[in-house]
Task: structure prediction
Amino acid sequence: MNLFLSKIRQVLLISVLSLSVLSCGVESIIAAGISGTGIVVGAITGFGSIIVNGVKYDIDEASFDVDGTSFNGQEGQSNLEIGMVVQLNATTYDDGTGVATSVVYDDAVEGPITDIPTLSDDDNNLKNFSVLGLNVTINALTTRFKNEDNTVFGFENITQGDVVEVSGYVDLITSSIVATHVEKKGTLSDGTNEVELHGVIEDLEETFFIMNGFTIDITQIGPNDLEDIDVLIDGLFVEVEGEYQSDGTIIATEIEGEDDERDEIENSDGHLSLEGVITSFTSTTYFSINGIPVFLDSGVASSEVLEQLKVGVQVEVEGIMENGVLQVDEIELEGEEEPDRKSVV
Result:
């Protein structure tokens, strides 16, 4: 396994992403109407506060980090869209409400579509294409689309050469994204070539390094263009902003060091609410969501739910992390209105 894959296994998906939220380190409280305090990861489904994973979170006192820019209150919310995958530090209550102390969003990738989007052989509601080495799947029924210039853009007319910002459920082990939000920023033909990608530095030389299979030209990078890092080294996980060139290289204009969010989540000791896609499946007891390992006791879910679990199924789970594995006490399949929860005998 190459350095990129071995390092990337330690990184969380959601957007990919430069999240800097830390777990509160508070034991989950199952009393007095409190479901838990900790980390929430999922797509935004509504505003008026912010709705994530079916819970309406009060954000009046929350801090916002949107694509690396800090905001407060309504200004932060105004920079978010339905479908964007966010990470919250929050307390969740049993009545379907909660209070968030921080909201963080970072896109999974921004860049040009380098091949012709093609319909899935198994489902005509799905299309697949590549953006900067990541395989992106869009869904005609669930992916939200937006165009910066407000012209029609969506599942039917997305095409090669479109420069897009993608948010969704990321599995960097397989370099894939199930997109929940896609925004068109322009096209390569009109000169729009700004890109943003996340990954691990490999084969660092004086003038370039390799990341995600792409050559990153660093000849224009000076000390003032590095953020949260002092020096570039092999094995460092970073976010690169730059300009895409016709030969496939990327001229970096800014490089930011990123935390290991997957390690942060796997080592959290509070409540975790995680929405995403099953990315690996050993059994109905052991599988992964967005690359995060999960243990599901058969007594927690009904047989009807267990029969539907497989790679690619979208789920929402809640529980506590123990030794890097999420111990699930609630599971909900996409489209269900209530979590499937049974008492464990």
Notes: The chain is about 5% helix and 45% strand. The longest helix spans residues 3-8.
